[in-house]
Here is the input.
Amino acid sequence: MLKKAISSLFLFILTWSLTGNCRADAPDWMRALARQPARSYADDVSTVVLLDDQVTTVQDNGEIVRRGRRVVRVLRPEGRNSAAIYGLPYSRNSRVNYLRGWSITSKGQEYETKPGDVFEQSISTYEVYSDAKVKALRVPGADVGTIVGFEYEQQERPYVFQDRWIFQEQEPVEQSRYELRLSPGWRVKSDWTNYKEEKAQEANGALIWQLANIPRIEAEPHRPPSMGLAGQVVFTFLSDKMKDKSYKSWSDFGSWYTQLSSGVRDASPALQEKVRALAPANLPLLQRIKALADFAQHDVRYVAIEIGVGGYRPHAAGDIFEHRYGDCKDKATVLSSMLAQIGVKSYYVVVNATRGVVVKNSAPGLGGFNHMVLAIALPNASYPNAMPAMYDHSKLGHLLIFDPTNDFVPLGQIPYYEQDNYGMLVDEEGGELIHLPLSNPESNGVVRNARLKLLPDGTLEGEIEEIRTGFEAMTARMALQNETEQNRRKIVEKLVSRSMGNFQIDNFELVHAGEIDKDLIIRYRVKAEHYAKNAGAMLLVRPRVVGEMAGAWDANKPRHYAYDFPAPFVNTDKVEIAVPEGFQVYELPEPAKTALPFAQYSSKTEAEGNTIKYTREYKMEATEVPLDGMAQLKTLFADITSDEKNMAVLKKSN
Amino acid sequence: MRYAALCFFLLIPVLAPGQSEDWLPVTPQDLQLKDVPGNPGAAAVRLYYAHYVDHDNFSEFYYERIKILNEKAVNPNSDGKTYADVEIPVASIAAARRFGVSLLVQMVGLKARTIHPDGSIVEFTGKPFEKTVYKGRGSRIQVKAFSMPSVTVGSIVEYKYRLTYDFSIDSPIFLGVLVFPPAEWVLQSELYTVKEHVHYRPFGGGRRVSGAKPKFYFDGARVSRVAFNLKEQPTNSNGNESDLELHDVRAFEPEDYIPPENDLKPSVVFFYSPRDARSIEDEWREIGKSRYEELEPRLSRNRGVKEAALQAIGAEADPVKKLRKLYERAQQIRNLSYERQLTPEEMKRENLKRNTGVDEALAHGYGTSEDITLLFVALAHAAGFDASVAQVSDRRQRFFSREWTSLEQIDNTIAVVNLNGTDIFLEPGTRFCPYGLLRWNHTATEALKLEKKGGVFVKAPPATYDKSVTRKSANLSLSEDGTLKGNVKLEFEGEEALELRLDTIDEDDAGRKKTLEGLLKEWLPAGAIVKATDTQGWENAESPLVSTFSIEAPSYASVAGKLFLVPACLFQTKENRAFTHATRKYPVYFPYSFTELDSVNIKLPAGFSLESIPHHQDASMKFARYQSDTQLNGTQLVYQRSLALNGIYFGQDKYSELKDFFGKVKTSDEQQAVLRGGMVNAQKGN
Here is the structure.
């Protein structure tokens, strides 16, 4: 009841209080932009940024003040909401000094907000608590044709003397401007990403960069992440007076992080006792490591509480152990602390949980990271075989990368999104950007075996088994492992329903669901009535029974970016369909074969006695197909789709 | 000062017998429980739940005891929530002060603890974090968030707290609306519940000392309750108080195409009614009378309405056509309810004012949905029709229940015109709703016709299958490589057109085309390229919505040796996703009945001869019919298909019949024509 009351009142205040009785008076700089002739854009562009202007001042004490103006024109109804609201994040070490907004409608009406119209919201998402909030403002009058403008000032005491100018967005930007004013004694280093570097103009002691007509980042299936595509500049501010927060290299950042996290891995007596219980000294070293990794992975639940610098600094290992919860860096910390008790060194690796945000040439900085894993130093003799997660470091030796936050990836493997990714390894001497290992195609995939029988009325029945390896096992476990038996079955039924109608699943079983070291096996019996279709005296039967292998593709739009795959893989299908008595194989589909530099697909349908045998293999060797490979990729997907539709024709025996 | 004083209220909770707020003893059964009966693999089980609503003390008490059964319960779901992390909403809202309303919701007495499988207990000793959901203009909405300590699989987490609330209401317009919204026990959750105890104490004059005691217009009102989907009856205690204890309540597991959740979960709604009402019929009559008296002054302010009615009718003499013209006139009024919500400043700039009567709606040329409905009724009155306003329920939210005598249940306004002894139901206040049609959520339900002497129930008619028709037609050519190319036309009529028009009301032409392209793609084979070339009829509610497309479907036909296989049915039915699963827990519920009529012409490539063509297909059940027919007409493959469903609610006992029917539809839709000859090279086409 109270929740209802709160929600109804909340709607009420959103309606009535976000805008006060404001006197309308848009500033001249906005009026000037409103007078400019509107350019034409593609019909799915909802808004265009007319101006994004930021003046950054680095003060003598290192505080950063940002004053900005942002003006957006609403082109389509879909853009009204996003254009009307603007928010500025703040936390314990930053504040918003002012935020104002105006709008000028297509009819020339002007609206202006008042300081009291600014509202606050928490921006914590996955965290149980974070002190990060946003101050936001909604401007009235945002209809198609309206120009909405904001002006603001932010002040920050930064942990790191850096600023990031991201000038490319999901919508086109007509003008983007960044002005930098440095107090005496300060200098700047600029690193450009995804855009041709522009030289700064100097005026009145300030450095000014200006860009015009920046295209939007297009929405496409399986493209690299926006932050990996957006044109941006990282500015690093340097001062001889305040060297401790100015970092030019990964090594500098590593040293900073070592200092920041100093002492957090100290073990409490309770933690030490737990290590003795979990990993007694008589066990082989790898087994001891595994026991501790399992503990951090499964017995410390994921909870994030971030206050102030807590977004970067882990909690103390003893506290994490006592509460049995923590975020990714806490889980890495508690494991590192435990490993130290058995004499195994480990190192933080700071990463982004999306591949492609931080790349080989990324400017040193922490802004691109959002996750932490651990690199465990393994003595040579401690493991029998090479593992996919092994990283050979020139000085630190064999490092096993392990992510204790992911419950579904065992020690020895790393989640697909961290493979082929870049992370900052933090060691005693500083830090460095390392390229995380990529598994081979054979480590990931689905082997599907189907032994089926066709009845004269077209009913297909039999057993289907899927053996899932690597990332395919991980993603299936994420979807299935913690579901109830009924829901697991429903999930599989939904997948099967994409390939056949009127079916029933029985004897469903999930093998090794909780044993993440092993392949996941999904097994079931299926009975599909009218699977084969009558066509006169013939029966048409599709040998590819279940499973679609072609990737998502938007055939309606040209492609602008590379196409990303989770990891290399090999998927195979082996299907046997016994032909019903009284029928014989009449015609079979042609084999399919497509060989490309990055992928191969082949299939064949054969008749052996009274059995149709369909086999196919799809091997992908890359995590990313570049833009110049799109024509080939399109062909590959079309060939797969075509093969998946093919039919074998049976005819009644005379 | 008065509002500030609200913060200092002291609450004196008084418990009825049996409402214990102490920790319950932890039993060996609780500690040993490892699985949910009948639902192995469940993430967690709710061992105990208590919810005590106390209107008299302005508070609610909650108690949750949950056992963690597997890791899913402690891993964040897609919303970032787990069963070991708790968020409790609280609020301080003074933004409505200009309307004389303020609200303060506080959490008091939070206790939480984790019980390990060995019975050891770890108390939560911290303070909850306060996350700001919204803060501005003197109002603050927060959630109190905390994490249970030392939780592992097998742990029991339990917590209890009380929410206290205080309203200060000076304005008469909110009396009875915000003071006590209907209290509700929701007795089924996403978790299996071993035991739950709920209690309700109505307002009885207030038992606490308050410096700002609200005034209640219903002082001394009778409290009523209505139970939904509940076999057990709540017991009465201490006069008007209600109490219920349930055991072994299974988890609520939603399915596709289910009736509103409110109608599936067992629940009890409490509400206040006038003390002197004698029966449910009396109560409804009174509600109708009261609502009539509320609306009558607006209808009576009708200067200029008669002239407008005469002008709209012109020389028309046929009553039905006259009524239709009045309907069109009412719908010419700008309908503000379907526009972006304007701020007070924007309303001022646009000189938009609240209409106090139908004369103002007419004069201003704008109004809300309700204004437009009232104007239509006034126009009809002026033209001599027997027209009434009716309140109707919304079956998107909940099916109507007569026992719940509250206007809240029937808060949508429609018009009823009695013409030659027949009631015609009309919805002029719904934008794009054509004459003669009700929007689906107002069909097949009860409506309270408002009359001077009180409310009278009438049946809002169902929307039959002929009131929602989708016509899909295609003229296409098949090339030798198996690619199908050509034009498709979609025509939507009735409910289907209305829903599309309303769904895209905030979209421009490009957005509507994109919506329709997406819709068509769902009917076409995967990988089809679809481009909308034209759309017509978005603004004219009386005409069909017509769109044309160019399409290309690569690999539409396939090759098997010397044979060329061509699917006869281009469009696939979407309703099958309701019937994927072998069993069904809940009834199948379609929003409205429908008809699909398909016509597909495929020009075949030269040099092919027909080997086989799909047979005529026919499937039917009591409320549904499917037919398809394929012919070869020269070099054209001509396909006709019809699917009609004339029912909306199918109980579990009908599931297998319905599943079988739609299975036959899918099977029939997959029939293929077999051709021979030509330069068979479809497979090499790409």
